[in-house]
Design brief:
alpha+beta; globular; disordered N terminus; 40% helix; 6-stranded mixed sheet
């Protein structure tokens, strides 16, 4: 769980310990200066599902059937969430480069001070896209959210490393 230092809107990747994240963001901004952030609205869901399919295909190395099953379950859950967007009170963001969706994220409040980021996907061929969507979305969350929960890593070492790279304030044991 990442926390804010006070109740003002702050850069979610500020401070010396997150310099590497700012490097990714700066690289993205230099490579794609005309990128556009947009709120994720129901009209953009088909583009998000298309990006997720491309991401899933790129991340299922060597046709690993166990991994494919996990990724298919994730797509099923994501589709269910998208189909109940308003009822679940979901909020999300997207990044576009030259009119192409390159990243999206969404989640919902857990309580009055904590926002849960449920999904974050990016086209890895756009260097820094994951870090950029994370920063752009987090800085637009209402100020009441002091913490951003990055969800469970489900034992995936790569995902765990990525989450720990944000130097969380709190790690909850499951």
């Amino acid at each position: 769980v990442d926390g804010r230092t006070d109740d003002r809107m702050v850069d979610p990747v500020s401070g010396k310990k997150l310099q590497s994240k700012r490097n990714h963001i700066n690289k993205f901004r230099n490579l794609y200066p005309d990128y556009e952030y947009r709120p994720l609205t129901p009209e953009l869901i088909p583009l998000c599902l298309d990006l997720e399919r491309r991401w899933r295909h790129a991340n299922n190395e060597e046709g690993d059937s166990g991994q494919e099953e996990e990724l298919t379950d994730e797509l099923r859950s994501m589709t269910r969430a998208f189909n109940r967007w308003d009822e679940l009170g979901l909020t999300g963001g997207t990044l576009f480069v030259d009119g192409t969706l390159v990243a999206f994220t969404f989640g919902c409040p857990i309580n009055q001070t904590t926002f849960d980021v449920c999904v974050e996907k990016a086209d890895v061929s756009y260097e820094g896209a994951f870090t950029m969507i994370n920063q752009e979305f987090a800085k637009r969350l209402p100020e009441q959210y002091f913490y951003v929960n990055r969800e469970e890593d489900l034992g995936d070492e790569g995902l765990r490393r990525a989450k720990l790279s944000y130097k969380p304030d709190i790690l909850l044991e499951k």
